[in-house]
Amino acid sequence: MNLVIQASSPFNPVHQKPLVALARGRRAVEIDAHAIRIEDADPAQRPDLDVYCATHALDYAFVEPGRSLADFGLVTMDMDSTLITIECIDEIADFCGLKAEVSAITEAAMRGEIQDFNESLTRRVALLKGLDADVLGRVYEERLRLSPGAERMLAGAKAAGLKTLLVSGGFTFFTERLKARLGLDYTRANTLEIVDGKLTGKVVGEIVNADVKARTLLETCKAMGIDPRRAIAMGDGSNDLKMMAAAGLSVAFRAKPVVREAASVAFNFVGLDGLLRLF
């Protein structure tokens, strides 16, 4: 296998020799200023690589030689804490003084400690009842930021011919704006009910939970006429696990431990554009 090693800052050449030895690889080739590729690496060496890379803030991934990004047809992304840096519902709750309470439920749900995502979302949204809907626009304008490397990753995926799907347990208010801003092909999220300019504390229609995320990926692949193995799925929380399992390549982005363990690749330090360096 090829072993791709990446750093968030310029890659320090001092790591090259020990990494080649640890991976029992043949040689190292520079990809760019931030990454190297070690050829003929041994995947059985993951435990030693885990320790070394975690110690030196490096990300690594084993990739089959000869694979290219163009082998895939779809890149699917979670929104909150994946494509963007915030959890939108937590920031909305901040405007009614309940951020700590809502954040605690969000964190437990993303770690997989709350098994019923529908219940956790319903509980959190109920706390927003009566809030002025104008707050959503303030969260988008004042607090929402793209994750590092997001735009470069999307540009690279589009250049390779991939379609893009943003599927979120968050809200359409944000996914639709990101779709227009970033030129995304498909989106799916929850709709907050708004009556007389106020949040009612309810969502409209089917809740986008783990099962719906996975189903949306599969339905999008079917509509595109591609095998799900040609899909890439990126996420950070336990409600992304089924979607990631349905894809041919799964990427855990600054993710909870349960997600890192299940994913094909984990990016703990580099940006989303680390995806491009794998190929």
UniProtKB/TrEMBL annotation:
Q: Catalytic activity annotated for this protein? A: O-phospho-L-serine + H2O = L-serine + phosphate; O-phospho-D-serine + H2O = D-serine + phosphate
- Its protein name is Phosphoserine phosphatase
Known cofactor(s): Mg(2+)
Q: Record's PANTHER family?
A: PHOSPHOSERINE PHOSPHATASE
Keywords (alphabetical) are: Amino-acid biosynthesis, Hydrolase, Magnesium, Metal-binding, Serine biosynthesis
Q: In which pathway does it act?
A: Amino-acid biosynthesis; L-serine biosynthesis; L-serine from 3-phospho-D-glycerate: step 3/3
Q: Can you name the source organism?
A: Paraburkholderia kururiensis
The answer to whether UniProt assigns keyword Disulfide bond to this entry is no
Q: Which InterPro entries match?
A: DUF4072 (IPR025138), HAD-like_SerB (IPR050582), HAD-like_sf (IPR036412), HAD_sf (IPR023214), PSP (IPR004469)
Family, similarity comment: Belongs to the HAD-like hydrolase superfamily. SerB family.
> Which enzyme type, at the first EC level?
hydrolase
Which terms in the Gene Ontology molecular function aspect does this entry carry?
A: hydrolase activity
Q: Which gene encodes it?
A: serB
Give the stretches traversing the membrane. Answer: none
Q: Which domain of life is it from?
A: Bacteria
- Which residue range or ranges hold the DUF4072 domain? 3-49
Q: What is its EC number?
A: 3.1.3.3
Q: Name one Pfam family in it.
A: HAD
